[in-house]
Amino acid sequence: MQVREAGAEERAGILALHRVAFAAAEGEEAGEIIAALVDSLLDDPTAQPLLSLVAETENALVGHILFTPVTVDGVAGGYILAPLAVSPTAQRGGIGKALIHAGLERLRQQAVPFVMVLGDPAYYSRSGFATSHAIRPPHDIPYPEAWMALALVEGALNEFSGTLQCADALNAREHW
Ligand SMILES: CC(C)(COP(=O)(O)OP(=O)(O)OC[C@H]1O[C@@H](n2cnc3c(N)ncnc32)[C@H](O)[C@@H]1OP(=O)(O)O)[C@@H](O)C(=O)NCCC(=O)NCCS
Question: Which of 1, 65, 119, 152 has the CA that lies 20 to 30 A from 95?
Answer without folding.
Answer: 152
